[in-house]
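Field log, afternoon session.

UNIT: design team B
ACTIVITY: writing a sequence onto a fixed backbone
BACKBONE:
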């Protein structure tokens, strides 16, 4: 593609500015729609991934099964008292497991001065922050010695700190939990709502030994948080956890286990698959307008060939080869496609940013989608411009000179 040929193409297109602009409009709208729809879809996909990852790193949740009462009545999931601390230690030894923490939950009322707040107290181990991706913003997490001694220490969420009006100096203050004095050793970094709408900052973390001995007087663990060594070994860690608990609880093959193991990686994969399908669907719908824009280019180029038949005849009469004429019209269609693509990319990025700000909808502009849109717009121009260019190249010079 030489510079003189490009200049001739631009001169031909600028002679009919309005028509060229309307021709490019289809490509502009098509490319803009593809980029906007794909960016919104990828933004939603990223948001789902962030929400899943905020729940924990390569997380498995082991929960107790259902307790069977008198008359065969089952009390529901989590009511069985079959998972013990010895089970937790056994799971910790599994090769595909990197960290384990018991989870013993109790509803408590906390009192600080003349303020009180009822929240969810969760007894956990020191490995809990790494498993559930929790960060201590002020102070520190309690230690292993606190767990061994069942110390009355607590790490509170931001919501609890605000409701008790503890202020910025919350660390070190004393609060009462079920009329027992507890010392606050840390404040968690704010995390906001979960994907289910639960306030993740309305919590207080306490050594699990403290909750089991001093708040609930229990010896079993209703929940165990398990972190696999990496994302690829979550299924292996799940299988090992099932095998360990089935063996320890003497659960025979075909018998309903007295526990449940949930793999959050499977949940993440399912959610990601759903959003990926939606992204492809949105991109496909927007891509239809690109085809419409390509048909518009073909239509206008055919009109241009008809209008310039005499000009083509003169060029061929003075020695222009048919290949040169064909290339000339292909260049014009490529210029239309590429110019429309660039304008569409700018418009699509602008629309994505605007929708994200106005409707508070996540968007993620992918460089891949931008490059693909630009190349596709050029391909559209070349594909739909080939037939008009070929038609121009095959004109009979004598008949073209006679054309009025």
């Amino acid at each position: 593609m030489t510079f003189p040929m490009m200049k001739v193409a631009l001169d031909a297109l600028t002679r009919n500015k309005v028509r060229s602009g309307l021709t490019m409009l289809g490509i502009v709208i098509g490319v803009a729609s593809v980029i906007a729809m794909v960016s919104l879809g990828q933004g939603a996909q990223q948001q789902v991934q962030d929400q899943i990852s905020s729940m924990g790193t390569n997380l498995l949740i082991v929960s107790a099964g259902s307790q069977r009462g008198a008359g065969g009545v089952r009390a529901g999931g989590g009511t069985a008292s079959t998972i013990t601390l010895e089970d937790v230690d056994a799971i910790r030894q599994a090769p595909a497991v990197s960290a384990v923490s018991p989870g013993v939950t109790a509803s408590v009322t906390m009192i600080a001065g003349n303020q009180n707040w009822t929240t969810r107290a969760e007894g956990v181990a020191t490995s809990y922050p790494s498993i559930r991706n929790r960060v201590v913003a002020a102070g520190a997490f309690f230690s292993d010695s606190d767990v061994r001694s069942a110390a009355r220490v607590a790490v509170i969420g931001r919501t609890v700190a605000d409701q008790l009006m503890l202020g910025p100096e919350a660390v070190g203050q004393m609060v009462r939990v079920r009329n027992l004095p507890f010392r606050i050793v840390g404040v968690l970094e704010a995390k906001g709502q979960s994907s289910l709408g639960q306030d993740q900052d309305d919590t207080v973390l306490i050594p699990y030994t403290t909750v089991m001995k001093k708040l609930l007087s229990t010896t079993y663990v209703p929940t165990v948080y398990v972190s696999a060594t990496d994302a690829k070994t979550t299924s292996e860690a799940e299988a090992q956890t099932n095998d360990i608990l089935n063996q320890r609880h003497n659960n025979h093959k075909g018998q309903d286990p007295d526990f449940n193991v949930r793999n959050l990686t499977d949940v993440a994969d399912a959610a990601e698959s759903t959003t990926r399908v939606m992204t492809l669907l949105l991109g496909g719908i927007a891509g239809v307008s690109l085809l419409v824009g390509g048909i518009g280019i073909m239509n206008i180029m055919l009109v241009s060939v008809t209008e310039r038949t005499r000009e083509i005849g003169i060029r061929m009469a003075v020695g222009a080869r048919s290949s040169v004429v064909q290339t000339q019209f292909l260049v014009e269609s490529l210029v239309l496609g590429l110019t429309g693509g660039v304008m569409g990319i700018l418009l699509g990025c602008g629309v994505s940013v605007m929708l994200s700000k106005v409707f508070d909808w996540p968007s993620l502009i992918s460089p891949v989608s931008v490059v693909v849109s630009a190349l596709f717009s050029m391909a559209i121009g070349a594909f739909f411009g080939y037939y008009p260019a070929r038609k121009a190249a095959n004109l009979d010079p004598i008949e073209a000179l006679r054309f009025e």
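LOG NOTE: Residues 69-73 have pLDDT under 50 and may be disordered.
NEXT ACTIVITY: expression trials, pending approval
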